[in-house]
Amino acid sequence: MGQVTEDAPTAATTGRMATTQRYVLWIAVLGSFVAFLDGTIVNVALPAISEDLGGGLTTQQWVVDAYLITLGALILVAGSVSDAYGRVLVLRIGLIGFGIASIAIAASQTSEFLIVARAVQGAAGAFLVPSSLALITSNFTGAAQSRAIGIWTAMTTSAMIVGPLIGGLLVDLVSWRLAFLINVLPIGVTLILLARGGFHDVRHPGASIDWLGATLCTLGLGGMVYALIEQPNSGWAAPNIWIPLVVGAVLFVAFVLRQRYVRSPILPLDLFRVRNFWTGNVATAFIYGALALNGLVVVVYLQEGAGLPATLAGLASVPMTIIMIFLSSRAGAWSGRWGPRFFMTVGPITMGIGALLLLTTTAEFSYWWQVLPSMIVMGVGLALTVAPLTSAILGAIEPERSGIASAVNNAVARVAGLVTVAMLAAIVGGSLDLDGFHRAAIVTAALMIAGGITSFLGIRNPPRDAVDQPPT
């Protein structure tokens, strides 16, 4: 295979992938697959985890948010490391760490140990998605890049089928612990492909990483999230709530201020001077905050409220995933041809309409009439959104900074999910009953529609002469 030159993209504009590009695409897909796979498994396993280890809704929130705290904070460091020391090195670190953490989760005997293991897994996951996407943006350009991102989106979202199916079966028939071990197979395959591919990273001498900034970011997010999750149990006036909230906010502000002056910032604020980048990230915050909230609420309510087994609850969203798989690549190609603005507007608003369809759910539960229509509509909207959103944000930044640009966008998405999950108790009114389920659907719809409006007002399509024509 030879060397992958990250500073000079190798993508041709003919629309046909070279052998090297196909190889890169498969590595990127598999490298991200494990992170997406885990995201679907954990939601399915949450009721079984809380039943086994105790803690109720609070434990469920922490199992999700412990992962998102470290992922959201360290994904920025991973982007800097990816640009400075190479995509392949970062990808290897992430894969190995993710595998070890998955084994630790499966062996957990207490909720506290599991939450710590999830935090470690989030730290490892921070090294996966940015380096995977950076491999694509460094080796594809123009319409070929949009098509490759569309394929990456479709293939990685297939984890949303594999995860609930296998994970749900293991939860129902064996144990939730084994559901976390299925990550090991794609991790092993990706490591083998990396070893056989003959890749050599391009490293930048003199590069440095802002570890102090990463610490400020992690502690800041952690303090605020702790307060949001525990507030329903103690109240805002309790010192164990307002002190972490204030300290966390101060540390996070200090992190942002530090990024203005540090020599090698992990959050380069100058990126936000690019219109499509900052607008796309605002839209990302709305959209992915809504997706995280909806994904958790639906699968948990279907088990605890509607009484479905874990397998069926996990498979409830499969129609949405199937639609994504079939349409994402095409939506990416359309976005490369006509620009992302239309798709980033219509897609989220369509998902908002799909979320509102969940209001038809009643105590006399029927998946086919009350949930399936929502999944279909949301699937269409999601397919129209994801690839154009990614292309618009990464396409606005020069290729040599694609690693950090991807990391920032992923951090925004994860932190948005972190906040909505942390506010779950406040959103649903303390318990995830039918009324709480309806309230979550309304909040999801509002966030989605806000994402669509943001895209319409802020996103600008690239000039027609700058868009490569698709293959005929």
TrEMBL record:
Organism equals Microbacterium kyungheense
Q: How does it sit in the membrane?
A: Multi-pass membrane protein
What is the recorded name of this protein?
Answer: EmrB/QacA subfamily drug resistance transporter
Query: GO: which molecular function terms?
Result: transmembrane transporter activity
Q: What GO cellular-component annotations does this UniProt entry give? A: plasma membrane
Upper classification of the source organism reads: Bacteria, Bacillati, Actinomycetota, Actinomycetes, Micrococcales
Instruction: List, alphabetically, the SUPFAM superfamilies matched.
Output: MFS general substrate transporter
Tagged with keyword Transmembrane: yes
Q: Which residues form the Major facilitator superfamily (MFS) profile domain?
A: 24-463
Q: What is its main location?
A: membrane
